[in-house]
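Quick one:
INPUT:
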């Protein structure tokens, strides 16, 4: 990252170490327009390709082929982002989608919101959230510790990279449209950011925003399918 020359105010603040964490960067409310900022503040970021499809279009000069890619990024501890891109070549398009996902990164709330649990650790969602995209509606509910991710494969990828270890998932709509399923799940996680909680609720449900430094438990494969 030595060759990075910031072009935005937030970029200069990160390079000058005025902002040292991703939480501080998002708290500034300054627009995140450089993917290098995320690379510096979250060096352990992971990425995954959710959907890659070839799009063909007839033009006067013949058939034009482009690729549409949807990627997600996350550090497994409170940060998650989704990005999409289109291009003529697969490799550069995937990289562009990953960069777009970094620019859309959010810091989610987690806690112990299941009435069946009460363990007090940050392992699931603090409350029920609903996300929508197209025809797909995703409902995520807190689950007791040890349940694992009882959601579909797309939602499981997002929740895993976001650092949610236990959750019930219910979905309606055309889930074969992976892009909408992904966007709906991301919208549901975004609701944890928008939801305001009182100090009493935060203490009772052990609600934490952003990283808490907990290692992910072993994956529970007993609940694979999408909820009805």
């Amino acid at each position: 990252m030595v060759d990075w020359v910031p072009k935005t105010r937030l970029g200069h603040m990160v390079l000058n170490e005025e902002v040292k964490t991703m939480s501080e960067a998002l708290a500034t409310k300054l627009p995140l327009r450089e993917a290098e900022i995320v690379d510096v503040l979250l060096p352990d970021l992971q990425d995954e390709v959710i959907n890659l499809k070839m799009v063909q279009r007839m033009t006067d000069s013949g058939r034009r082929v482009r690729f549409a890619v949807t990627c997600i990024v996350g550090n497994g501890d409170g940060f998650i982002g989704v990005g999409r891109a289109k291009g003529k070549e697969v490799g550069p398009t995937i990289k562009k989608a990953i960069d777009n996902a970094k620019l859309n990164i959010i810091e989610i709330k987690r806690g112990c919101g299941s009435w069946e649990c009460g363990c007090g650790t940050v392992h699931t969602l603090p409350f029920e959230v609903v996300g929508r995209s197209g025809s797909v509606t995703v409902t995520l509910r807190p689950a007791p510790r040890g349940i694992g991710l009882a959601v579909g494969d797309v939602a499981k990828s997002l929740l895993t990279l976001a650092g949610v270890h236990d959750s019930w998932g219910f979905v309606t709509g055309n889930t074969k449209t992976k892009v909408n399923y992904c966007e709906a799940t991301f919208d549901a996680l975004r609701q944890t950011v928008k939801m305001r909680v009182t100090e009493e609720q935060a203490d009772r449900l052990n609600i934490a925003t952003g990283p808490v430094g907990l290692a992910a438990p072993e994956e529970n494969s007993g609940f694979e399918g999408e909820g009805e």
